[in-house]
């Protein structure tokens, strides 16, 4: 079971998210919080796997709470977890702040129920999810910062030919199983390739790999 903590200062919204998550067969809500500070304290006590975090909350906002939760406390009293940001406001400032804070996802509160649950599952397995409307703007922000050809060639050289193929397929939005079928290897082998790519590029998740791919010419 995926242990979920729901943090939102609006009682009705929080209750709705709790109901949606608890209705899923593979998830359980272990705690609720009405502000970011309470979310950090709840994580100390309940040790959730994934936190659904509102952006705008009193006491401690969702961005700062996310920053504390993804790293955890140095003494181990607050275990690190994955955070999926939920917001009513589709604003770039929230998107970029959430990703910089270490969030594994950024979804709008009006997203379909299945998208919310999929976001929790994606974050739990170590990947990332971004609302489609925000993905286009994220890439539009990254593409103008493309390095020159020499720098791109040098950066790409750290990857093997097969790893470069995997990166390109990740940028197409393919799952591990779909990538495996495309390059004729098992899903487990694809996971190994993805892990190597993350380590070589020094990035945290698949979203950052996709941004890297666009910046370095492995995706259009």
UniProtKB/TrEMBL annotation:
Residues with PTM 4-aspartylphosphate: 54
CDD domains xref list: LuxR_C_like, REC_NarL-like
Domain HTH luxR-type: 152-217
InterPro entries given in the database record: CheY-like_superfamily, NreC/VraR/RcsB-like_REC, Sig_transdc_resp-reg_C-effctor, Sig_transdc_resp-reg_receiver, Tscrpt_reg_LuxR_C, WalR-like
Record bears the keyword Flavoprotein: no
Response regulatory domain segment(s): 3-124
Keywords tagged on the record: DNA-binding, Phosphoprotein, Transcription, Transcription regulation
Pfam families: GerE, Response_reg
UniProt keyword annotation of Membrane present: no
Top-rank taxon, per record: Bacteria
GO molecular function annotation: DNA binding
Name the record gives this protein: DNA-binding response regulator
Organism annotation: Isoptericola cucumis
């Amino acid at each position: 079971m995926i242990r979920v903590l729901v943090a939102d200062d609006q009682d009705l919204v929080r209750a709705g998210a709790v109901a949606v998550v608890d209705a899923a067969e593979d998830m359980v809500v272990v705690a609720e919080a009405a502000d970011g500070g309470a979310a950090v304290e709840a994580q100390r006590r309940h040790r959730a796997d994934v936190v659904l975090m509102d952006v705008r909350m009193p006491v401690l906002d969702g961005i700062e709470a996310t920053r504390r939760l993804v790293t955890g406390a140095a003494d181990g009293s607050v275990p690190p977890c994955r955070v999926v940001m939920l917001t009513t406001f589709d604003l770039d400032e929230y998107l970029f702040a959430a990703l910089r804070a270490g969030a594994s996802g950024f979804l709008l509160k009006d997203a379909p129920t299945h998208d919310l649950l999929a976001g929790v599952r994606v974050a739990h397995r170590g990947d990332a999810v971004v609302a489609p409307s925000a993905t286009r703007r994220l890439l539009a922000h990254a593409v103008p910062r493309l390095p020159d050809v020499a720098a791109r060639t040098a950066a790409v050289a750290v990857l093997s030919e097969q790893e470069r193929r995997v990166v390109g397929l990740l940028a197409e939005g393919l799952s591990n199983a779909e990538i495996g079928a495309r390059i004729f290897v098992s899903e487990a082998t694809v996971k190994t390739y993805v892990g190597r790519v993350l380590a070589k590029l020094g990035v945290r998740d698949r979203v950052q790999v996709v941004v890297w791919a666009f910046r370095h010419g492995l995706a259009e």
